[in-house]
């Protein structure tokens, strides 16, 4: 673990040699994720509510999702571009290192600019929180909601691990990532109530992004569920990461190099 | 004709036309290598479609007053069409790959060919768009037909007008993405410009939110922007919400953007600095 953090620090120092690039990427990511929220804000501007959720409540959902996704893209940058390792045979070079392949892979690069998405998400959460606290939401939400992106990052990271594992057989996984990460991320920015039953099952069970924000926030905002809902994101993150890690180790044993 | 080089190709107009057909065919063939990978992406694209359909079904009223065409069923139809049309008019390769040619230095060979650069890139991408229509839009249309149902055209004339409208939509989108790609001659990197283009174009294209229901002044301006030419008008024409005037708006942007692309290409060709190769 100490080695991992040393590699993290080295990678951050390397990235920060290009300060202007970092600033541009940071600002652009913040703007681009804000454009995503503009879409749902436009819908809310016209209809005021999405299944009983107002703009502040939806801002909380979107903020949690954006921050979690931003954190995943920052710390899981290499996992997200894992297809490159499989197609070019670069995974071979990770196998000959004396450390676990996943730790080596994750510590190779940190996309610091993606923190712009995290920043935008935090702003959304803060604005949404302001609105829901004024409307009578419990005060503890002001601390609790900022923990949700951390659990959410675990869920997305686990989905990414599962997708990367599939790559040990399929080699090309970029398109699969759109299905397993991109679409569920979009879905997590809306209240789960809008979806038909089969999609609700999909986003709660197989691709459990509803646990990132919707399930705990539904309880916190007095829209249903039990107090157990507050533990759901952390339990889901832990469990899915465990499954993801097992899948990775299993898949790794079946890796066949494309040569390099 | 094609293999015989510069002199023969230039010998006749017919030769040039054949050359463009050949380039388009190579653009089509290049994509067929990833057919199965694209089929997986079609499932993701369908999933996105179901998400947006669910959203509009949740918020839009079943019926609306006079002058407001956006009831639940119309909005669901718009989402289905947007997802299907997007593969020929929105989801195009970043910068049409021009930035890669600049980075590797192969741009030098491409501009040395006996055909002007802009129409050559367009011809290549026409082939890619034809592939996307066949292997992406069509399977998606089948998925939606089997699940939520594919919307029927409002009339035969609407259906007939949709064909040139989609051609114009695709062309306008290609010219905009071409502009992003050619900007690499000044900036080398188009990643950021592409992200910005994709975000703004997805929001203002009128595909996932009808351009005229955007809030305030944006709703007034959006239908007249080039982004609306890519989704807003083809969808409206298909559903009978617009007629030939929609086609006219698209044609206007097609002409303006063609002039812009020729001009910017001329400027860009004087700036070529080969990075590698």
Can you tell me about this structure?
The complex is a heterodimer of chains A (260) and B (277). Chain A has helices at 2-15, 19-47, 55-75, 77-80, 82-87, 91-95, 101-106, 115-134, 141-144, 148-170, 174-187, 197-206, 214-220, 232-252. Chain A has one domain. In chain A, helix 2 (19-47) runs parallel beside helix 8 (115-134), helix 3 (55-75) packs across helix 10 (148-170) and helix 10 (148-170) packs parallel to helix 14 (232-252). Chain A is globular and about 60 Å long. In chain A, 71% of the residues lie in helices and 0% in strands. With 277 residues, chain B is mainly alpha-helical. In chain B, helix 2 packs across helix 7 and helix 4 runs antiparallel to helix 7 (117-147). The longest helix of chain B is centred in the middle third of the chain and has 31 residues, at 117-147. Chain B is globular and about 60 Å long. Mean pLDDT of chain B is 87; it is low at 1-9. Chain A binds chain B through residues 24-25, 28, 31-32, 35-36, 38-39, 42-43, 45-47, 49-51, 172, 174-176, 178-179, 182-183, 186-187, 190, 193-196, 199, and chain B through 34, 37-38, 40-41, 43-45, 47-48, 50-51, 54-60, 192, 195-196, 199-200, 202-203, 208-209, 213-215.
A few lines on this structure:
The complex is a heterodimer of chains A (260) and B (277). Helices cover 71% and strands 0% of the residues of chain A. Chain A has helices spanning 2-15, 19-47, 55-75, 77-80, 82-87, 91-95, 101-106, 115-134, 141-144, 148-170, 174-187, 197-206, 214-220, 232-252.
Report how far apart the termini of chain A are: 29 Å
How many DSSP E strands of chain B?
A: 0
Q: Structural class of chain B, please?
A: mainly alpha
Secondary structure class of chain A reads mainly alpha
Number of helix segments of chain A?
14
Tally of distinct domains of chain A: 1
Largest sheet of chain B: none
What sequence of helices (H) and strands (E) makes up the elements of chain B?
A: HHHHHHHHHHHHH
Low-pLDDT parts of chain A are none
Largest sheet of chain A: none
What's the average pLDDT of chain A?
A: 90
Percent strand of chain A equals: under 5%
The H/E string of chain A reads HHHHHHHHHHHHHH
Oligomer classification: heterodimer
* Rounded mean pLDDT score of chain B: 87
Radius of gyration of chain B: 20 Å
How would you sum up the global shape of chain A?
Answer: globular
Shape of chain B, please?
Answer: globular
Q: What share of residues are in beta strands of chain B?
A: under 5%
Largest interface, with counts of residues having CB < 8 Å to the other chain, equals: A-B, 33 and 31 residues
Q: What is the CA-CA span between the terminal residues of chain B?
A: 28 Å
């Amino acid at each position: 673990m100490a080695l991992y953090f040393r590699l993290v620090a080295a990678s951050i120092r390397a990235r920060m040699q290009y300060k202007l690039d970092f600033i541009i990427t940071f600002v652009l990511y913040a703007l681009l994720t804000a454009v995503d929220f503009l879409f749902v804000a436009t819908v809310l501007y016209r209809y005021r509510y999405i299944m009983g959720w107002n703009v502040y409540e939806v801002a909380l959902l979107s903020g949690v999702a954006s921050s979690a996704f931003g954190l995943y893209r920052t710390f899981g940058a290499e996992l997200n571009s894992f297809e490159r390792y499989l197609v070019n045979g670069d995974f071979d070079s990770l196998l000959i290192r004396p450390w676990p392949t996943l730790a080596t892979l994750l510590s190779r690069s940190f996309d610091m600019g993606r923190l712009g998405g995290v920043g935008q998400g935090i702003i959304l959460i803060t604005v949404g929180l302001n609105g829901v606290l004024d409307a009578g939401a419990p005060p503890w939400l002001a601390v609790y909601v900022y923990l949700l992106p951390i659990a959410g990052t675990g869920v997305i990271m686990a989905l990414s691990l599962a997708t990367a594992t599939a790559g040990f057989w399929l080699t090309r996984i970029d398109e699969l990532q759109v299905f397993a990460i991109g679409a569920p991320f979009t879905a997590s920015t809306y209240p789960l109530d809008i979806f038909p039953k089969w999609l609700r099952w999909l986003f709660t069970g197989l691709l459990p992004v509803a646990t990132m924000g919707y399930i705990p926030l539904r309880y916190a905002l007095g829209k249903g569920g039990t107090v157990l809902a507050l533990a759901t994101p952390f339990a889901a993150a832990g469990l899915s990461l465990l499954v993801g890690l097992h899948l990775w180790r299993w898949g790794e044993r079946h890796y066949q190099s494309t040569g390099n | 004709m094609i293999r015989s080089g510069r002199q023969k190709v230039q010998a006749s107009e017919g030769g040039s036309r054949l050359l463009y057909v050949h380039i388009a065919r190579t653009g089509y063939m290049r994509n067929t290598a990833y057919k199965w990978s694209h089929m997986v992406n079609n499932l993701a694209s369908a999933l996105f479609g179901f998400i947006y359909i669910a959203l509009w079904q949740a918020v839009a009223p079943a019926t609306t007053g006079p002058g407001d065409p956006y009831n639940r069923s119309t909005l669901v139809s718009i989402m289905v069409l947007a997802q299907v049309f997007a593969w020929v008019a929105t989801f195009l390769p970043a910068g049409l790959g021009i930035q890669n040619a600049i980075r590797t230095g192969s741009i030098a060979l491409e501009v040395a060919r006996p055909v002007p650069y802009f129409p050559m890139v367009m011809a290549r991408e026409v082939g890619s768009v034809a592939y996307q229509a066949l292997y992406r839009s069509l399977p998606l249309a089948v998925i939606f037909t089997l699940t939520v149902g594919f919307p029927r055209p409002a009339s035969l004339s609407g259906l007939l007008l949709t064909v040139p409208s989609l051609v114009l939509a695709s062309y306008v989108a290609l010219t905009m993405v071409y502009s992003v790609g050619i900007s690499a001659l000044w900036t080398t990197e188009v990643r950021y410009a592409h992200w910005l283009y994709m975000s703004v174009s997805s929001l203002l294209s009128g595909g996932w939110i009808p351009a005229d229901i955007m809030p305030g002044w944006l709703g007034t301006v959006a239908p007249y922007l080039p982004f609306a030419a890519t989704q807003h008008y083809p969808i409206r024409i298909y559903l009978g919400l617009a007629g030939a005037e929609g086609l006219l708006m698209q044609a206007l942007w097609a002409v303006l953007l063609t002039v812009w692309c020729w001009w910017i290409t001329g400027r860009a060709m004087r700036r070529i600095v080969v990075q590698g190769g």
